[in-house]
Amino acid sequence: MKKRMIGGFILLVVLLGMINVSAKDTVYSLNKYSEEILLKMEDSYNDIHELDGIMAAGAITKTKAKEKDKDIILIKYKKNGTTSWNYIYEKKGTEELLDLKYTYDLDNKIDGYLLVIQEEESTIQFHKIDLEGNLVWVLPSSLEEQEKIVKIEPLIEEEMVQGYIAISNTNTNAYLNFYDKDMNLLWKKEYQEENSKREFQDIIIVENNYIILEKITKEEETKVEIVKTDLKGDNIETIITSLEKYTSTNFIVKDNSFILYGVTPEVKLKKGDKSYYLIKYSLTGEEEWESIGEVSIEENEIIELKLVEEGYYLLYKNPTDSSYEVTKIDKDGLFEKKVKKIINNYYDFESFTLQKNVLYFVGQINCPDDDNCDYDNNSLFLVSDEDKVIEVEDKDSTNILLIIGIIMVGLGVLIYYKRKNKKDER
User: Fold this and answer.
1) Cα 413 to chain center, whole Å?
2) Is 136 left (phi over 0), alpha (psi -120 to 50) or beta?
3) In whole angstroms, what is the distance from residue 189 CA to residue 352 CA?
4) Rounded Cα gap, residues 285 and 211, in angstroms
5) Disulfide engineering: 25 pairs with which of 20, 302, 384, 405, CB 3.0-4.6 Å?
6) Which residues lie below 8 Å from residue 219, measured CB to CB, with a gap of 6+?
7) DSSP line for 79-94
8) What's the sign of the alpha-carbon dihedral 120, 124, 129, 134?
9) How crowded is residue 190: how many other Cβ atoms within 10 Å of its Cβ?
10) H helix or E strand, kind and range, residue 403
11) Smallest Cα–Cα separation from 327: which of 299, 350, 346, 308?
12) CA–CA gap between residue 63 and residue 60 (Å, rounded)
C-alpha cells in the first residue's frame, strides 16, 4: 500500500511537471534600444508554397539624439519563433504601415508580400517583397492628395486572383480603388454624402459583391451602416442600418454570408460591462443569428476574430485584470471554452493567428516608467500552446525548474524504495 501511494504521488508530480513545461510560452523580441511595434501578421510560405511560419510587419523608431526616424519592417518567423529574414524600409520620416497582403504570380501562386506604406508627406506606396525577403519593386498608389488607404483585399474570381480592391478616405469622401496584380490602378469610384463626411471602415468580398462598413457624420450626428456594391463599384445600396449601439465593428467572411463582430454594452453581465457580439448576415442583409458574449471586454479592446473549421477564435482584453484572453466560439456563435489567458502588464497584443494547435501573437513589450528600461517598446512575437490556459509571468521558468527538481527527487526516492524492498525480500 505504501509503495502504491509513493508511486501515485510521484506520477502526479511528473504529470503536473509535464503540463507546466508544455504550457510555457516563448517570447521573441528583435532587440532593445529601439522603439518597436509589430502590427499585422499573415501566414508565410516557402518557394514550393508550403506553409512554413509567420509574417509579421510593423515599425521601428530609431532613437538618436533628438531625432526619431521610423522604419517599416517585415519579418519572416519560422514556426518555432526564430527569424528567417527581415526587410526594413529605411527612409527618414514618419512612415506608417497601413496593410500587409500576399502577392501572386501568373499561375496564381503566392510569390511574395505586399506592404502598403504611407510616407510623411501623405503619399502612399506599395512595396513587393519576395519569399526570400528581397525588394522586388516600389510603386506609387495613384491616390488623391490626403487620401489614405484603410484596407486592401485580393479579388478572386473562379479561383484566380484578378487584382486588389482598396477602400480609402479623404477628409470628406470615400473611395473604391481597383488595382491589377502589379498594382496598376485600373479604376476608381468616389462616394459622397451631401454636407457630410463619408468614411469607409472595412470591406470584404462575398459572392461577386463588395460588402462595405461605412460611417457617415453630419453635424454632430453619426450613423454606421453596411452597404453593398457590385465588383465595379456600381449599384451601391444600403443593406443594414442602425449599428450605432456597437462600439467597434469588423467583418469576417463565412461561406456565402458574413459575420459582423465587435463590442456592445447590451450584455447579460453587471451594469456597465461590455462584451463581444457576433451577428451572421446573409448577402442581402438578413440576420441569420446573433450571439452576445458573457465575458467582460474592455471598450474598443476587441482584437480579432479568426475563422476555423469548427467555429471561431476571439482575442480580446479582460478589464478585470487587464489580461488578454482567447475564447473558442462554436459555429452558431455560442461560447465554447476559454483556451488562453495571459496576464502580463508588459504585453500589448495587436494581432494573432492559429496554426494547428499553436497560437501566435504579435504586438509590443512595454517598459513601465518605474522600471528604467533602455527602451520604450520592444517588438513582441509570442508562440503559445493553444490548449493551455496559463499566466505568463517571469517566475514561470523558475517554477518549471523547481518542478523538474521535484521530479528528480521523486524518482530518486522511488529508486531507493525499490532497492530497499529487494534487500528486504532477500
Assistant:
1) 48
2) alpha
3) 33
4) 10
5) 384
6) none
7) TTS-EEEEEEE--SSB
8) negative
9) 14
10) helix 396-425
11) 308
12) 9
Give me 114's grid cell: 505586399
Whether the CA torsion 135, 140, 143, 144 is positive or negative: it is positive
Q: Is the dihedral of CA 243, 173, 163, 102 positive or negative?
A: negative
Q: pLDDT per residue over 98-137, tens digit each?
A: 999 999 998 889 999 999 998 766 688 999 999 999 999 9
Per residue in 206-220, pLDDT tens?
999 999 999 999 887
Picking from 58, 68, 75, 77, the residue whose alpha carbon sits closest to that of residue 33 is: 68
Decide if 41 contacts 15 (C-beta within 8 A): no
Which residues fall within 8 angstroms of residue 161, CB to CB, at 6 or more apart? Answer: 104, 108, 154, 155, 181
Does the reported pTM lie above 0.85? no
Backbone angles phi, psi at 90, to 5 degrees: -100, 105
By the 8 A CB rule, do 223 and 215 touch? yes
Mean pLDDT for the chain overall? 81
Cell of 89: 524600409
Judge contact between 92 and 103, C-beta under 8 A.
no
Q: What are residue 192's phi and psi, to 5 degrees?
A: -120, 160
